[in-house]
């Protein structure tokens, strides 16, 4: 009976992660509808996606540390309430500003739940079962991230954009009620909360000003003085944050973890791969619905090729990771990832949808086969396992936020170069501008992929060197 209860609790926490990561990507496919219904340009509507991810990035580490002192269950349940309330506000929003407020509330709730679900799993499962439990949680959560545009397209094919938020409400209520009666009780925590508040404040300001500078640049140009000043402020605050973390007894992020080369390389490569994955979420809805004039439901059906391939590729790649190693499997899948990216840099706009769908399948295989979690957790020493897990979640969400920024910025830049003036919207009367922007955007994605390949190859080199050293020690 206890085993059944544990499985239900696992699925309750995992499904909340699914919904929260789904909401990070499902809105992308609704952006064309939102720009028309709310009468805002495309770059302003992208804030609906970005503000949610920014809030998660700002608060994820904070709630993780708070949970250690207050209790995982309390933070998770409070996060469920905030996420559900934010979804309710978004569903009823008549304007962009109220919708953004709802997304902020959602982001606060999502950061609380994301920071604690792994801790709850550790509470309810013995050590011998945690690996499988973490694996199930990771697969369910990742499905939420990559299936958003596809599910969003199917929903929008028959309902209005409000329903992509309405569906969260009953799920949030059910998970909260289940947790109220069935989650384990938190262990007694300290009454005195100790925290690196200067680190949190500078970190939050650095994250916020970095993303604000990017989106201001999209709107008014990157040469604008206000944009440059905001970016410089972000850079200065980052330097202050690193100084604080080096000189505090209980830092928000223990910077010593970045002195482990393979772990740092794994984190950065994961950030880049998640950024690349978000290009499809941002660009494909406009390509399929506006450029190709497909219905939103058909767009959703085509985009489901990515999560479909991901679900198949992930466990297969996991099997080969156990047999060989995560870095080798990852670099092979990065070369698979390169095929559709090269195609998207050069393809003609009206290519066969069959061929296009095959390319999306390859995107899903490349993404699903990249073994970021096994690399990160595998190269983290035992004493750093907790912070490594938090950093894995942080770099994943940072990758999503940066992916939105890079995809939109490169898309707008490519369109602006083609049109010889600033373009930050879909050019209805000039589809060739959009295609040029899409080509340029995926060229930047290809550059990111090349950097990722180099980073993973460096990990493989370190692995080989370590293997040789061990062999020499045995012979000696």
TrEMBL record:
<feature type="domain" description="Major facilitator superfamily (MFS) profile">
    <location>
        <begin position="9"/>
        <end position="464"/>
    </location>
</feature>
<protein>
    <submittedName>
        <fullName>MFS transporter</fullName>
    </submittedName>
</protein>
<feature type="transmembrane region" description="Helical">
    <location>
        <begin position="433"/>
        <end position="460"/>
    </location>
</feature>
<keyword id="KW-1133">Transmembrane helix</keyword>
<feature type="transmembrane region" description="Helical">
    <location>
        <begin position="195"/>
        <end position="215"/>
    </location>
</feature>
<feature type="transmembrane region" description="Helical">
    <location>
        <begin position="353"/>
        <end position="370"/>
    </location>
</feature>
<feature type="transmembrane region" description="Helical">
    <location>
        <begin position="300"/>
        <end position="320"/>
    </location>
</feature>
<feature type="transmembrane region" description="Helical">
    <location>
        <begin position="163"/>
        <end position="183"/>
    </location>
</feature>
<feature type="transmembrane region" description="Helical">
    <location>
        <begin position="45"/>
        <end position="63"/>
    </location>
</feature>
<feature type="transmembrane region" description="Helical">
    <location>
        <begin position="265"/>
        <end position="288"/>
    </location>
</feature>
<feature type="transmembrane region" description="Helical">
    <location>
        <begin position="104"/>
        <end position="127"/>
    </location>
</feature>
<feature type="transmembrane region" description="Helical">
    <location>
        <begin position="391"/>
        <end position="413"/>
    </location>
</feature>
<dbReference type="InterPro" id="IPR011701">
    <property type="entry name" value="MFS"/>
</dbReference>
<feature type="transmembrane region" description="Helical">
    <location>
        <begin position="139"/>
        <end position="157"/>
    </location>
</feature>
<dbReference type="InterPro" id="IPR020846">
    <property type="entry name" value="MFS_dom"/>
</dbReference>
<keyword id="KW-0812">Transmembrane</keyword>
<dbReference type="GO" id="GO:0005886">
    <property type="term" value="C:plasma membrane"/>
</dbReference>
<keyword id="KW-0472">Membrane</keyword>
<feature type="transmembrane region" description="Helical">
    <location>
        <begin position="327"/>
        <end position="347"/>
    </location>
</feature>
<keyword id="KW-0813">Transport</keyword>
<dbReference type="Pfam" id="PF07690">
    <property type="entry name" value="MFS_1"/>
</dbReference>
<feature type="transmembrane region" description="Helical">
    <location>
        <begin position="227"/>
        <end position="244"/>
    </location>
</feature>
<dbReference type="GO" id="GO:0022857">
    <property type="term" value="F:transmembrane transporter activity"/>
</dbReference>
<feature type="transmembrane region" description="Helical">
    <location>
        <begin position="75"/>
        <end position="98"/>
    </location>
</feature>
<dbReference type="InterPro" id="IPR036259">
    <property type="entry name" value="MFS_trans_sf"/>
</dbReference>
